[in-house]
Design goal:
Blueprint: E1 19-23, E2 35-39, H1 44-53, E3 57-62
Antiparallel strand pairs: 1-2, 1-3
Length: about 70
Amino acid sequence: MELDRDTCSAKGCQADAVWALLWNNPKIHTPERRKTWLACDEHRASLSDFLGARGFLRDVEPHVPA
């Protein structure tokens, strides 16, 4: 198993990350701060919906591995 691959942030998912969901919690983060969850194609919508429902989602971009 490759240890340095980027995987989806969904609980239990081991799929390769394809998307970067950029978010922040305005109650605790400055406006310019961005945290990142990674998502596979299957979990992009559910993770985006979770963050969006809380007003945290700022942007979704293709994930570019470091």
